[in-house]
Structure formats: C-alpha cells, structure tokens
Amino acid sequence: MSVYLTRIAVSAIRNISNKSFTLSNVVEFSPVKLFLNNRSDVFNLSRQLIVRNFTTDTIQPVVALENASIPLKKKTAHKKAVLEDLTKKEGHYLTFAYATANSYDLKALKEALVQQKLYEPGKLKAHEVGDVVIANPVYTIGTEPREIIFFKEGAVVFWNCTELEASNVLDFVKRYEIESYPKDVVEREREVMTYVYQPNVKKCHLQESCFVLVPDRDNSLEKYSFSHAMAQSARLGAWEARLESLAASVREHSAIMERDGATYVDKKEVVRKLGELFSLRHRLNVESDLLDTPDFYWEEEELERLYSNTVAYFTIPRRTRVLNERLSHCVELLELLSSWAADRHHVRLEWMVIALILAEVCFELLHFFERSSRSVRRKTSYTVDFEDPLLHDISIIDT
Fold first, then answer.
1. Distances in Å between the alpha carbon of 268 and those of 63, 164, 272, 334?
2. Fewest beta carbons within 10 Å, which of 112, 121, 157, 250?
C-alpha cells in the first residue's frame, strides 16, 4: 500500500513540474525527500522553496552561464624564436636549421667538402646513418666544437656556427641542390634554437627553446635527433610558404568568380597549378616521414622520445594536418576551375559543330536554288524551241 501511495505522489509532483506558468516570480523546488517514519505517518514531504525574480532583459543562454567559469582553450601554435633574444643568454650556443632545396646530392657534396679541406666527414658514434653527411670543421674556435649536419631531404643544421659561416656554407651547397627554394623563403623559414650543458643531468631533454645536453659525454646521437626534428620543421615551413604563393593565385580566380560570376582561365595554367599541388602533397605525405616516426628511432627508445618531444614543440603534426586541409581546399577549387574550362571548351566545340552544320545547310540551299533555276531555264528554252517551228508553219499557211 505504501508503495502504491508513493507512486501516486511522485506522479502528481511530476505533473505539477511539467506545467508552465507565466509568473514574474518563479518558484524552484528542491528534490523531494521521502521519510517513512511509521505506519501511521506514511511519508513526509520536506522541500525548500526558493523564490527568484527573473526579467526578460537579463536572460542569458544556459550553456554560457554554465561555462562562464571555464577558461577558453587557446590554440597551441609554434612561434619562431627570435635570434636577438637567444644570443643574450649566457652559456648557450646557437643552432640554425635551413631548408634550401627539395634534396641534395650528398655524394658530390661529401667529395666537395673533402676537396675544400675546411671540413672533414664525421660519424655518429658507431652508427652509420644513411642519407646524412656530417661535417666537422678542421679549424676550431674556442673550446666548444662546431658541427654541420646535411640531410638528403634538402636541409642543413648548424651547431655552434655563426651566421656568417652558415651563409658561406649555404652559398657553397647551392651547386649540389636539386629544385632549390627561393632565398627569401630559406631565410624566413629557418629555425633557431640554443643548447646548453647542464651539470648533474643524466639525460638530454628539451627545455622551452633550448636543448639540454649532458656534459663530458658524446651527445652526437642526441644532436642528430634534435637536428632531424628542426630540419623537418624548416622543410614544412618552406612547403607552407609554397602553398601560400599557390593559394594567392587561386584566390584571384575565386575573387573574379565572386565579383563577375564567371572567370576565364587557361586550362594549361590550371593543370600546371594542379600538378604543383599534387607534387607538394606527394612530398608531404609520401616522400617525407612527417606523418610517422622514422625507422631509425624504432630501436632507440630514448632517441625516439627526444625526436617526438621536439616534433611536438614545433607543432609539426598539427601543421601537417592543416597543410593537408589547405591543399585539399585548393585542389577542390582548381578542379572546379578545370571542369569549368573543360565545359567551356566543350561548349565551344558544340558551337563550332553547329556553325559547320549551318554552313552546310546554306551550301545545300544554294545548290538547291541553282538546280531549281537551271530547271526553270531548261523549261523556258524548251517551250521557245517548240513554239518557233509552229509559228513558222502558221506563217507559211497564211501566205
């Protein structure tokens, strides 16, 4: 019986709460609490009444009120370090990374470095890393050694080198570049970091815009990992600049479409730009290893950690995803322009066919009129020839 009465009470309360009232004072009910004291008192309802005044002028969305205390999440974007700020730090050495071309001829470059007698090839401990040339200067300046790492993918990283030396090496390596990048893009998209030796440190790690190395130890593999990530970021920056220039040309056509409703483009130009976009996408997703960890780090857990942390610092995964999305958008627009140009070409061909058909019809009409005029002339000549002897006979009879 108590269960039955409880159900009736709960259903009655639900019906009351479902009704809507247009009152200036809204009564808010707290949840109903049921207390079963004894058989005589089946249940008691204890509730709190809270009266709030609401006006339509100050109504705000519920979601906004609930999330008002939650801070907005800002996008994490890679901000390039300023060289002037980094050089002010004491005990820090500079590291530069440049992406100058699509690839290098490493074999010829290594031979040229040996013949120049200013740098000698180096190695990474006992490891032989493929598609990389390490150059150690013959002449040392100071106690900290200098090192240059050339990657086959067209990037070079300088450790403890001045800007003047880096500029000279970049001029030297130009003859071994394949598909060189513009000089302004190379300078603008370079990456600058610092590295420092900290005592009482057992492992190399990344700290803000600085690489922390272990003193009195060979850190060549760690330097290679940091350099690889910096080179990847510089290459990605060069591709972003290339896409920006291509998107600017595509933006002109979209502006014409928005203003005039039609755009007249050369199909060869559209196909050429599509080829550049597809080539850039192929380099980004197939030829490069930006989407996955390179095979070299699979058996080196510590080096993989350093590489992954540095890649995350340069926001390479997010930038790669955004670049792919922008590439897809540009390709979609250019394919639309290509189909538009193809349709215009087809329409032009159709009009040419219609013009040829009209010309043929005109010629047929001319031939028809010529044939009809000839037949008329033949009929008139035949009647004249027939009437002449008849008139001659009539004239003889009259005489």
1. 52, 43, 6, 12
2. 121
Q: What is the Cα–Cα distance from 192 to 177, expressed in whole angstroms?
A: 22
**DSSP-based three-state secondary structure for 158:** strand
* Alpha-carbon torsion angle 161, 105, 320, 159, nearest 10: -10
Q: Contact 125/135 with Cβ under 8 angstroms?
A: no
**DSSP annotation of 31:** P
Successive 10-residue mean pLDDT values, the chain, 399 residues: 50 49 39 41 38 36 35 46 63 91 91 86 67 86 88 93 91 92 92 90 87 88 92 93 87 75 71 88 86 82 91 92 91 80 72 89 87 77 57 58
What is the reported pTM? 0.67
Q: How far apart are CA 148 and CA 206, in angstroms?
A: 20
Output the six-digit token pair for 133. Answer: 């040339």
Residue 148: φ, ψ to 5°: -130, 130
Is 291 in contact with 247 (CB distance < 8 Å)? Answer: no
Rounded CA gap, 252 and 95, in Å? Answer: 39
What φ, ψ does residue 210 adopt, rounded to 5°?
Answer: -140, 140
CA distances to 162, 197, 249, 263, 338 from 256, rounded to whole Å, are 48, 57, 11, 6, 15
Beta pairing class for 210-213 and 191-197: parallel
